Amino acid sequence: MSEDSSLPQHHVQSFCTRPPPPLSCPKTKICSYRGAMGLGNKYVRLNVGGNLFYTTLQVLTRENSLLKAMFSGKKEVFTDKEGWILIDRSGKHFGSILCYLRDGNLNLPKGRQAVQELLAEAKYYFIQGLMELCHNNLQGNKEQPLCEIPVVTSVKEEERLIQTSSKASSNLGPVVKLVYNRSNNKYSYTSNSDDHLLKNIELFDRLSLSFNSRVLFIKDVIGDEICCWSFYGQGRKLAEVCCTSIVYATEKKQTKVEFPEARIYEETLNTLLYETLPLPDNSLLEATRRSYTNCGSHSEEEEAPGGPEPRERVRRIHVKRYSTYDDRPLGH
């Protein structure tokens, strides 16, 4: 019998079945502030949510707060094996809190959300002065909308807005109106119509953000059209771009919505010619009213009663004309 076989059987099993040692967590201990500072360091070493800070006892105990209670011996603190005092809190704004405790004032971070986060930390540490500073900032700096878009619900309201529109002076300014009413339809839509309708709405939003200081943008959600743009200058309608048409599929009619992005951009820029008085000369205005029949779309000009006055013409551009639409009137 060999030496290995002569070993007791239970000794062999103990070597083979020994479990691995459990994972150890960082060792911490609870002590008072004086115990944590037993090494006599000049600065207090803080670990706040994994962020390391050095500061002095004078700063931490300057105001009657949770930090003063922790570092005056009234409240126990946690320390790791290296002597860092642990605070189980996010360290994102702790630097701002230390700055406030040092100076008694603070340049608050930009953005409403950042101030709200700092306010939450100030409440946790119970720093009364910083809480008031954040509250005053949030109440005094309410977020302002980038632009305001009126939504008209009647013809009279629309006429009042157009006749009183002014962005830069006492003159009647340019106006761009979008009518969109998806439910105003008796047929089914083509496959791309919903996507094109959304693109028209998104373009309206982009234009309103770009030109809101110069052009009044209006939304109309109760008009007779499904998707139609109207452009006004000095209180008069200058042009209209209708984006809907009726197409004939197999044994049925469908409503199609187009997205003539370039044409809409062009008409919006043309309205800026009417931004201020005096108006441009007739040759320039006439150049913006040239026929678009060569571009594959239909256009027509309506003359005012009494003669072909150039400034009284309205250009109506339809991507495709309606063939019939029962008794529902065209335009709005």
From TrEMBL:
Pathway membership, UniProt: Protein modification; protein ubiquitination
Gene Ontology terms for molecular function: ubiquitin-protein transferase activity
InterPro entries named in the record: BACURD1-3 (IPR045068), BTB/POZ_dom (IPR000210), SKP1/BTB/POZ_sf (IPR011333), T1-type_BTB (IPR003131)
Entry annotated with the keyword Nucleus: yes
Matches recorded under Gene3D superfamilies: Potassium Channel Kv1.1, Chain A (3.30.710.10)
Composition-biased stretches (Basic and acidic residues): 323-332
Xref: SMART domains: BTB
Sequence segments annotated as region (Disordered): 295-332
Primary localization: cytoplasm
GO cellular component, one term: endosome
Pfam families documented for this protein: BTB_2
Domain BTB: 42-110
Subcellular localization(s) per the UniProt record: Cytoplasm; Endosome; Nucleus
Matching PROSITE patterns: BTB
GO terms (BP aspect): negative regulation of Rho protein signal transduction; proteasome-mediated ubiquitin-dependent protein catabolic process; protein homooligomerization; protein ubiquitination
Keywords for the protein's UniProt record, in alphabetical order: Cytoplasm, Endosome, Nucleus, Ubl conjugation pathway
Similarity comment: Belongs to the BACURD family.
The protein's name in its UniProt record: BTB/POZ domain-containing adapter for CUL3-mediated RhoA degradation protein 2
Source organism of the structure: Takifugu flavidus
